[in-house]
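Quick question about two entries, pasted in order.
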Amino acid sequence: MILVRRVWLIRHGQSESNAGLPTNGPGASPLTGLGRRQAARMAAAFTAPPDLIVGSPFIRAQQTAEPTVERFPEVPYEEWPVQEFTFLGRLHSPQTTGEQRRPYAEEYWERLDPAYVHGHDGESFQALIARARALLDRLAERPEDGLIAVFTHGVFMKAVMWSLLTGVTDPDAAAMRSFRDFLGACDVPNCSVMELWRPSGTQGWRVVGGGTLHLDETSTTQQPASPARFD
């Protein structure tokens, strides 16, 4: 019998920053009314309790997880470092909007320096990828099989997916350019789910190609297909 560890990486609901409002720090932007409704619908999408609920240190992810935690009070809740990529550091702290920070963000990505730390308190691109890989390692080391729900953030989810698909663990300038292009080509809407699964044995993590929230059971519970098969 092949056991399967499944993970739902869930982006937070719409935050005030997503709505174009000013923020006062990278982790301080709360959900809007729409974001709270999205969080409630996310909680209702579970057809069975997850084995573990994980939230990031940022308030918008914690607020998104709240309805799921309330629906399944018996399920353990843990906080892990799955927060958003905060490459601008202190520039998030004043009452500024994403549009006002855009020129600084564009300047950051144009540098193509994976080790660069903006303002001495931002996060480097190397550190982002290291956090993404650390999440995958931590999930793989969990003793139980079953579903883990991780309430996290859009760019972080893209970093996990990109690192899995490319195999990059120590990015150089070319890899950073590749990820910048990937950011523009991959859309992760608020409260969307990116599913990962890992069968027992020697196979590693896989990204599920397509949403399965409408199904009671998914194909991830079946025998993994041979790499030579394309059906």
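Here is the second entry:
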Amino acid sequence: MPAEAPRPAAAAQKPVEPPKPAIAATPAQAPRPAAVAQRPVDPPRPAAPSSLIEQWKVAVEAVRVASPRHGKSLSHGRFVGMEPGTIRIAFPNDAAFHRSTVFGMSRQLIEEVLTKHFGRPTKVAEDNTSQALAAAAPSIAENEAKETAARHTAIDAHVAQHPAIRNVLRILGGTVEHVQYLEPVREAPVLVPTASSPDDE
């Protein structure tokens, strides 16, 4: 029988060391982010009017600030439409005095204020067709009169039901003949300068 080949000696195995835990980088070792240039933050500006009717309200307020009497007459006009350089309005029959003010000798002053407000020549034009008048929303003055009437009605009802007043009337007799209304101060909308006249509807 052939002699058996000698077996190779077992290789000495080195003990396997456990993996060392990763060492977190200290703040001094961590890479620093590049400095980002910061732009100065501008203060918030009032939002520009979002619709043509809102632009009309702000324009009327600009005229009221410049001349309360002319602004009041302009507020009686119903807004019909707005194109670059032109604002179309219509006056109801019961606002003939205010119509004559806007389209009479005061027209130049009103258009000068509107031109300054919109930043370009702006004219007021009358659309006195029955269709335009019927389709137009109530004027600023009509809405304000409606709000005032509703407020006065609520005040009258509150006064009539007030316990102190009812006791006085019960003891002394009589009726409430007059209630003096203290009107709240009207808050004007923020006048936002307009670089150019609005687009077509």
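Reply: The domain at 52-139 is CATH 3.30.300.180 (GMP Synthetase; Chain A, domain 3). Confidence is low (pLDDT under 50) at residues 23-27, 42-49, 191-201. Hope that helps.
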